[in-house]
Write a structure and sequence with these properties.
This protein is of the alpha/beta class and 214 residues long. Helices cover 50% and strands 14% of the residues. It has a single domain (5-204), classed as 3-Layer(aba) Sandwich (Rossmann fold), CATH 3.40.50.1110.
């Protein structure tokens, strides 16, 4: 099978959109594609299906649209960012009702949704080999103890998906921890260019087997 040309599909939320940098500046998707091309020495075309504010449920719903499923079916490299908005929405609810269960329920539900997303992709009769890359969450709310607790609980869950066939999880949490002021945009929620580049580096360090021997 000829892998001289690979297809990359990026699915997800505002991180995949690239919120936090100037319009037309690269986000992690563009950086990751560029790094991947350099490492694999192959041309990589890419498509992006993402929406700012998208939850894991929204990303799952994207897979119900034929155009996205066709893109998934043709992709050799897939990245998915999801979960941050699930936690932010749950945190807003917690501030109102002070019920910590709302956060643990959101983590459980987002985990179920990610599991369904991966299952849908794995069940496709994909003709080409593919790799699937997830990312755990960094913590932009370093002054809120319950935020770090919730994010670490979510990350423990998402890291478990790295045991699945073709799936690896990039540890973005560790990349950002202690470096927030250098890697986050002035708004303090989304990465800046340096942050997105570090995300892309973390993804690329997960390797590219079976496209090369990592």
């Amino acid at each position: 099978m000829d892998f001289n040309h690979l297809r990359y599909l990026a699915l997800g939320d505002s991180l995949t959109v690239g919120i936090g940098v100037l319009f037309l500046d690269p986000g992690f998707v563009e950086y990751y594609r560029s790094l991947s091309q350099q490492i694999l020495k192959k041309h990589i075309s890419y498509q992006k299906y993402a929406r700012s504010g998208a939850t894991t449920e929204d990303v799952l719903a994207m897979l119900d649209t034929p155009i996205v499923m066709e893109a998934v079916n043709c992709a050799n490299i897939i990245t998915i960012t999801a979960g941050g908005d699930d936690l932010i929405n749950a945190a807003k609810g917690y501030l109102i009702n002070k019920n910590e269960k709302s956060i643990s329920q959101a983590i459980k539900q987002s985990g179920n949704n990610i599991s369904k997303i991966l299952k849908k992709i794995h069940q496709l009769d994909k003709q080409d080999k593919y790799i699937l890359r997830l990312q755990n969450l960094y913590n932009p709310f370093i002054d809120i103890p319950i935020a770090d607790e919730a994010i670490r609980a979510f990350n423990s869950l998402i890291n478990s998906f790295g045991q699945e066939l073709n799936v690896k999880v990039a540890d973005i949490y560790s990349v950002f921890k202690g470096n927030e002021k250098f890697l986050l945009s002035p708004g303090g929620i989304h990465p800046n260019s340096r942050g997105y580049y570090q995300m892309a580096l973390a993804l690329s360090r997960l390797g590219y087997s079976p496209f090369r021997g990592d």
